[in-house]
Amino acid sequence: MIDKKLVQHVAQLAKLEFDEEQLNKFTKQLDEIITMEDQLAQVKTTGVAPTTHIARQKTSFRADEVVPTNSQEELLQNVPEQQNGLIKVPAILDNGEE
Amino acid sequence: MDYFNETIDSIHQKLVAKEMSPQELTQATLTNIQRLNPHLNAFITVNDQAQAPKEIDTENPLQGIALAIKDNILTKGMKTTAASRMLANFSPIYSATVTAKALNAGMINIGKTNMDEFAMGSSTETSHFGITKNPWNTAKVPGGSSGGSAAAVASGQVLAALGTDTGGSIRQPASFNGIFGIKPTYGRVSRWGVIAFSSSLDQVGVLSRHVADSAHVLKAISGFDAHDNTSSDSPVPDYTKITPQVKGLKVAVPEEFMGAGVQAEVKKQIQLAIKVLEQNGAIVDTVSLPHAQYAVQVYYIIASSEASSNLQRYDGIRYGFRAEDVHNLEDVYVKSRSEGFGDEVKRRIMLGTFALSAGYYDAYFNKAAQVRTLIIDDFKKVFADYDLVVGPTSPTTAFDIGSRIDDPLVMYMNDILTIPANLAGLPAASVPVGFADGMPVGLQLIAQPFAEQTIFNAAQFLENEINFLQQRPQIGGQN
Q1: Given CB atoms, is B230 within the 8 Å cutoff of chain A?
Q2: For the packed helices B147-154 and B22-40, what is the interaxial angle rounded to 10 degrees?
Q3: B77 lies in which domain range?
């Protein structure tokens, strides 16, 4: 059973936040979805290996060679805030006091 | 210029014979898109600067052919948004391998098509850039998530478009729009530069009115790519060498695909198409895929879990939307994500984060991964005796805009017939075979790994025999 407390906990893990109205909506919808997911419990899976990828290609080694890659200018092209070629972010710990 | 009924081959002949110039063709395509986009909203970005080649190489049928590209596939220097506010102004600094391969083959990137946000949806209603409409009836959805690509092709704006398919996002819109759409084998096409949703399921494919046109484009974009370790180095066959016949073809119809959830009129059209296969020498049997009934449950755990991990990168720091009025770094993450993502994306991130979280991992993620193994095994058993698995692509035809968007469970169930092929990494396509209640119905064709040619051959046979392409949609088709 999914309740608001659990949804808030998951939101925190996912770095999302919801207002009260959204929280109610998401709790109801996620509860319905998880109830549907609980049908999986009907399937006997004792001893069945989980499939986590389906790549048929064998991974292989490659030479450790230096190759040209994107320039600093290119890589900064989509950065929302920057200064002197560096990515700018707010203070990590405090609430904005300089 | 009317190119609605042309194919890549027929256009190529006209270009070579100088009956039309590449410039005229490109201009006609842009004019057509500009005329239809206000009605259908199939494109997020139109490439007004598209350059036609000056000369046509007689050996290269793709040269000068316009390609519409789904907006989750990177195009260097051209906005690529995944139909999300999060990436509304994102300009890629490199192109996806599929983009580069198509352009190297001479195709023209004519524009970027609308889709469900981050390819999460079955109706193209979750796009930040508005709904795409179905050219057969503009009150209906085009399906999704590659709804823009499908509508652009069905209305005759382009001969071919690229889409991506994680749980049916090429095949279901192809079915809803009365066109052909193929999702190749997992690994056939590189995923490098394709905005990641669910990495163990995502695959790029092609949509076109004519089967042979998809064969041309798939041939061009397939192959091993050192940037994607899951891409396959098995040789790419010449898919354009199509043999349109089904004599002796062993066809399996899973009883689970023809169950009560399938609309009666849809089922009737599918049965008629299967009869056509049988009357022309195919050997048709009913089989069982006993775990297919759990495909939706498995999919929404696996796809959402992978999505919750893949979408962690959208944190407002290096690219994408950054919220204003933030006071610390945690705020940047939380507010940028909460304001940048739409509801369906948030629902999937939440579901995935839940399924992977401590205390729930075994009951949900691991359980779904185990049932996935059982679904794969079911297919292996059937393919030991058969060449092709067929059934409906979707349980219904295109539904009304707005009718399902508030009910995620009903929307998710729409994918029940397409998801199994993704879970097993199999090539699968949808080919139009008729109408139910005035809207197109698609037959799904699923083959063994790397047996795309079997699909092209059977689909071309059905295209020739059923002659669906003589139908014209309400919007487009009269250019």
Answers
A1: yes
A2: 120
A3: 8-244+457-470
The domains of chain A are located at 4-41
Q: How far apart are the first and last CA of chain A?
A: 45
Residues from chain A that touch B338, judged by Cβ atoms under 8 A, are 16-18
- CATH number of the domain enclosing B21: 3.90.1300.10
| Alpha-carbon span A6 to B307, nearest angstrom | 20
Chain A residues near residue B332 by CB distance under 8 angstroms? 89-90
Residue B23 lies in a domain: yes
Task: Give the residue carrying structure tokens 């100088």.
Answer: B18
Residue B336 among the catalytic residues: no
pLDDT digits (tens, 9 = 90+) for B326-377: 989 999 999 999 999 999 999 999 999 999 999 999 999 999 999 999 999 9
Q: In which residue are the tokens 């991506």 written?
A: B164
Which element (helix H / strand E) includes B130?
A: none
Predicted confidence (pLDDT) per residue in A9-33, tens digit: 999 999 999 999 999 999 999 999 9
Residue B332 in domain: no
Whole-prediction pTM: 0.97
Tell whether B364 lies on the interface with A, counting CB pairs under 8 A.
Answer: yes
Contact call for B367 and A41, based on CB within 8 A: yes
How far is the CA of B44 from the CAs of B114, B148, B238, in angstroms? 5, 9, 32
Active site residue B394: no
Number of domains in chain B: 1
